[in-house]
Amino acid sequence: MPIAGQIADTLDRPEHAFLTRSSGDQTIDADLQYLRELPWADTSIGPISTWSRELLVLINLAMLSPQPQLFLLGPDSIIIYNTAYGRLLYDHHPLYQGRPIALNEALISNAPAIDRIVDRATTRVRPANENHVTFFFSDSGRLRETFLSATMVKLPEPLQGFHATTYDTTAAALQLRRRESLKAILDSCALAKDMPGFWDSILQGIRIEDGDISFAMLYRADLLEKFDPEADCSRNVVDHQGFTLHGVVGSEDSGHSQHLNMSSPEPYVGCMREAVRTGQPLLVSVKDGTMPESWGRQSRQRCYGDDSLEAVIIPSSDSPESEVYAVLVLGIPPRRPYDEDYASWIYSIHQLFANAVTTFRLAEARSFDTQLVVRRAEALRTRQLLQAQLLMKQREAELQAEKLNEAIEAKRQQENFIDMTSHEIRNPLSAVILSADSVTQTLSQIQDLIKASVTKNASIDPHSLTELLDDIAESVDTISSCSMHQKRISDDILSLSKLNSGLVEISPSAFSLSSFMNRVCETFNNETSRADINFTAMQDSSVRLYNVDWIQADSGRIMQIMTNLISNAIKFTAGVKGEKSITIRVGASQTKDIAIFQDLIMTKPFQVIDDKTKASNEDIYLWFEVADTGCGMDGKERSKMFQRFSQASPKTYNEYGGSGLGLFISLKLVSLQGGVIGFTSQTGRGTNFAFSVRALREKSPDLASKQAMSILPDRGAVEANTLSVLLVEDNRTNQAVLSAQLRRHGYTVYTADNGQEAFDFLQSSRHWITSGQDSKLPHADVICMDIEMPIVDGIACTRMIRQAQQDGDITNHIPIIAVTANARLEQLHSVIEAGMDDAISKPFRVNDLKAVIDGVLRRA
Predict the structure, then answer these.
(1) What are the two backbone dihedrals, phi and then psi, of residue 631, each rounded to the nearest 5 degrees?
(2) Most buried residue among 93, 399, 461, 507 by CB atoms closer than 10 A?
(3) How far apart (Å, rounded) are the C-alpha atoms in residues 748 and 179?
(4) Long-range pairs for 821-828: beta carbons < 8 A, 24 or more residues apart
(5) What DSSP string runs through 349-412?
(6) How far, in Å, CA of 470 to CA of 419, rounded?
(7) Rounded Cα distance, 332 and 214, in Å
(8) What Gene3D superfamilies does the database record attribute to this sequence (predicted)?
């Protein structure tokens, strides 16, 4: 282990960010800290900085998963597991993290099962499964029996190792085992003809199943003969002063009393008296002295051979008013706790024991009791009640099995999603690498042309040069397209995580509907042009009818839905023959019943909007339609729309790719905004999607406001070549690329590697009060600030700048824009609270950053 506070490796790549930034869960953050501080350089898989991006993405997803997951990496099967799996390890966590599996004692005992599942994962195409594998983990120094089911897949090349998703199936396995134990007891007792035979039968039933009863002792109450003058004969009555041992299940050589005097001061005898008095089971233990240690030694031939430390005393009656004819002592398995489920199972045994004894006792008392018919009916009702209880428990077991199957199906879908996500990340990444190689090769050819022209003193062939430049443009276009595809996949995963955690908030703001539609068109014009698709946007006449121009709604969430629908339309239209067109429309309605939805297949919203809310005159429903002439869908494919991790058919993924999340996310976002979504599609004729959102009409800015605005200096009209930008970025590659891009757009760019260098720059600039506004000194009209940086991070640096501003050391307000890979809304809010003016999340295009710069300078 490294020294506390020592970072074991340099984690400066973007994909390392999840190891250092907060996940929102303190336990996960502690595990991530432990993970990154391990001496990975001493292991066969090497330091974290050498791990592939794909592996880091999978580890990031696993650490956030609520399901226990682990990786076996490298030739030594080094273990990496998530927080959920760590909870199963009890005392062994976090010591097993980063160690070869051969050194982890709690897993060595299950080496055969692990070897089987690894072998199957290696030799089979489909994931390998192992169900209800028994593990023993130390919990506060005491072994705990745990059942796990696991699915393991071999990681794709070049990753070396395996990824396993496990499920704690202890509850289901114990329920199955206890149901079998109860059945064995019932079957054995059903063979008994009388009460003496019943005593042997119940012990025999307990003896059959070895798992949940570590030992058993049956004590029968002493009987006294009493003459009944009415029946003119004697009968046996219970003498509660003494109990005699009838039989034992367990080690016969362990010490136990053959006869118990119920007036004895022994603590366990006192517990037996209490159980007899109340007619209820009573827990005794070695720890509090109510159970003799000699009882626990009887379990050495059962339940893994440990000495039992607890037992339950069960009387043959379930009420204080009834006679107790026997007491059954059941040892609790040493490696299972006496929890609520075990207590419920003991309750079933108690009812079986008490009802059976009552039934036999009633049969024996037939000649003495004139109410035999009534008592027989009571016994029958008791049996019926027991049967009903058993049926209820059986139904509970079936429901548990159904839940387990649902969990397995959810796990399967998650695995498919991971496979698809990995494919969707790797495919465009491969294209990016190949395109970058193509650019390098083409530039080399251009250099050769130039050298040849210089050597031969001849002009360069324009045709050859044009072809090479076209190749570079095509490769750069491919890189841009693939990068945007990867960004959409990342956005889908982030959106799904927020939706599942209930972190998505709808934030309405005023915006122009016309400007919004123009922005949609600008976003997709290039992409549709490249695919030779006729892309058209129009407003329905209802927009003018209801005088809808400026509205109050969440334009970002609406844009996210439109992006998902239009991206799908482009994907499924680009490859068709003949006419290729995509048309988007926007309209308005004063009610939820909109004509455009009449012929569509509608989906059920995820949440019910309260229609009792008093509507105002400003309420409006906006609807949007995306219609394409793509390949369309058949009936089977239409039935799978809007399901999470699901696409229309295997052909859809194989031919078009995608994560299977876009429509599912769109449905949730529409529901959160009080709307509905539907679609219609026919094979070969295209697809139409339409959705609505609830909004408020907003008054457009009046003439006076516009005139007042025009009086103010328009900072957005300032040419870029008159502006200076201080770029604070610790990643040298990102710094160099972004600096070059900004300079191409006319900005003067200064750079700093961290927050401290940025603050030092300001102290030596004309912004610092002691400089005297020397025009020869550098200045910054705006600061682009990264967040995660060494020495002084972006938030700390911002606070230093704002404090210096407040103290008067900095003479003016310098706008600061957060340029960060943190994309969650709460992370972006935190930078604004720290004193920054705006934020933009990576990845982005330089025009996007330029628009943000113009915006903050306009507001400055």
Answers:
(1) -75, -20
(2) 93
(3) 77
(4) 821/14, 821/17, 821/787, 821/788, 822/17, 822/21, 822/787, 822/788, 823/490, 823/491, 823/494, 824/494, 824/498, 824/503, 825/498, 825/503, 825/505, 826/503, 827/21
(5) HHHHHHHHHHHHHHHHTTTT-TTHHHHHHHHHHHHHHHHHHHHHHHHHHHHHHHHHHHHHHHHH
(6) 35
(7) 6
(8) 1.10.287.130, 3.40.50.2300, Histidine kinase-like ATPase, C-terminal domain (3.30.565.10)
Identify whether the C-beta of residue 605 lies closer than 8 Å to the C-beta of residue 558: no
312 near 330, Cβ under 8 Å?
Answer: yes
Locate CATH 3.30.450.40 in the chain. 174-370
**Short-list 36, 2, 43, CA closest to 19:** 36
Helix (H) or strand (E) holding 238: strand 233-249
Q: What is the mean pLDDT of residues 561-565?
A: 88
Contact in structure between 720 and 645 (CB atoms under 8 Å):
no
**Which CATH homologous superfamily contains domain 174-370?**
GAF domain (3.30.450.40)
What is the number of other CB atoms lying within 10 angstroms of the CB of residue 283? Answer: 17
Note the pLDDT of residue 804: 92
Q: What is the CATH number of domain 399-496?
A: 1.10.287
CATH number, span 14-168: 3.30.450.20
Q: Range(s) for CATH 3.40.50.2300 in the chain?
A: 712-859
Class of domain 712-859: alpha beta
The class (CATH top level) of 504-700 is alpha beta
Q: pLDDT by residue (tens digit) across 76-107?
A: 888 899 998 888 888 888 888 988 887 776 66
No. of helices (H) and no. of strands (E), the chain? 25, 24
Choose among 581, 558, 677: nearest CA to 629. Answer: 581
Q: Which of 385-394, 555-564, 632-641 has the lowest mean pLDDT?
A: 632-641
- List the structure tokens of 720: 């870029």
Phi and psi based region of residue 836 (left: phi greater than 0; alpha: psi -120 to 50; beta: remaining): beta
**pLDDT of the residue at 332:** 92
Residue predicted with more confidence, 599 or 435: 599
Q: Which two tokens stand for residue 214?
A: 């570590």
Sheet architecture: strand order including 326-331 = 259-261, 233-249, 216-228, 326-331, 310-315, 282-285
Per the structure block, which two tokens stand in for 210?
């070895």
Mean pLDDT, residues 702-731 taken together: 56
End-to-end CA distance of the chain: 50
| pLDDT tens per residue across span 577-615 | 888 899 999 999 988 888 888 888 887 765 544 444 444
Q: Boundaries of CATH 3.30.565.10 in the chain?
A: 504-700
**Which tokens is 619 given?**
């309420």
Q: How many residues does the chain have?
A: 860
Sheet harboring 816-820: ordered strands across?
Answer: 748-752, 724-728, 782-785, 816-820, 838-841
Q: E strands along 269-360, which residues?
A: 282-285, 310-315, 326-331
Model pLDDT for residues 313-324, shown as the tens digit of each residue: 999 888 887 888
Q: Distance of CA 772 to CAs 90, 723, 748, 777, 781, Å? A: 64, 20, 22, 10, 17
Determine how β-strand 259-261 pairs with β-strand 282-285.
unpaired
Cite the DSSP H helix spans in 680-793.
703-711, 732-744, 755-763
Which pTM was predicted? 0.42
Furthest C-alpha separation in the chain: 140
Q: Are the C-beta atoms of residues 630 and 572 closer than 8 Å to each other? A: yes
Q: Who contacts 630 (Cβ-Cβ below 8 Å, separation ≥6)?
A: 569, 572, 573, 576, 686, 687
Q: Are 163 and 62 in contact (CB under 8 A)?
A: yes
- For residue 759, give Cα distances in angstroms to 643, 772, 845: 50, 18, 27
* pLDDT given for residue 240 in this prediction: 73
Tally the C-alpha atoms within 13 A of residue 851's C-alpha that lie toward its C-beta. 7
Dist. CA 742–CA 853, nearest whole Å: 11
Token readout for 432 is 């990016």
Quick check: helix, strand or coil at residue 804?
helix
